[in-house]
Every structure is written in C-alpha cells, then in structure tokens.
Design brief:
The chain is α/β, with parallel strands linked by helices. The chain has helices at residues 17-22, 36-42, 51-55, 75-81, 84-101, and strands at 4-8, 28-34, 65-68.
Amino acid sequence: MAKAVICRRAANAHRGWHARLLAFFPAVELTLLVGSYAISYYVAGARTGSMTQVIVRWREFLPEVFVLPHPSWRTTGWLRDNPWFESETLPELRARVTAAVSPPPRSAPCLRR
C-alpha cells in the first residue's frame, strides 16, 4: 500500500480540494499542519489560544497530525523564545517523516537451488 505525507495549508482548504485529493491517498500516515491558519482550521479549539499554545501540545496530536510553526523570517524570534522546539520537536518530526516516506522492509529473496 502506498504511503503519503500530506502538507495541509488551510488558506485554500475551504475550497474543498483537500477532500478530493486525499481520496487518492488512502494510506496517509502523517499530516503536517504548518502555520496558524492550518492549525486553526484543522485543530479543534486552536482558535481560542495562540499558535504557541497549540504547538506546545504537539504530542497530543500524534501519530496522525504534526503541528508546526510556519517557516518564515518571523519564526526566527519564535525559535529563540521556544528552544524546546528544536531540541524536542524537530528530532521527532524528522523520525516520523523518515518513517512515513521510507519503503517498508522487504524480506531477502529466496535462492533457487
């Protein structure tokens, strides 16, 4: 079964293209919610707090969803104020993305005698 990693940007999600696209990927193992718009759109209750308040709870959304700040020049200050993100979250993100996009292990072929 094919694996897929889908990065959802909520700015255009209301147009319904996500549902149509996801129908072609039945085995999505990890969804990256990048930035406050995507987080607000897909995470229930995220609109009541800040993006940081949601990202601090990143473990609660695993294994299906990974919440992330938007990678922009403004994130530099956010990363400086939240050093736990680089030390705790990024290694876990790297491991989960690697697992999601790596092919499953195959058994060794049988040699004919």
